[in-house]
Amino acid sequence: MSNRFIANLSFILCAVILLNNLSALVLHTEISKVTIILSILLMVVLFINGVVHKKKAVSK
Known about the structure:
Elements: H1 3-26, H2 33-59
């Protein structure tokens, strides 16, 4: 897989997790605090992964 594909996939997954968190908050569904914290942490890791792979794709 190319760096550009991995970067785009990371950004897409980050956006999906963000939409999931926002919809859970807007709809007032019962979701545990730990789940939200872990999903935010996963979003940050995916975003950093996407940035790193995007820089690798540009430098080639």
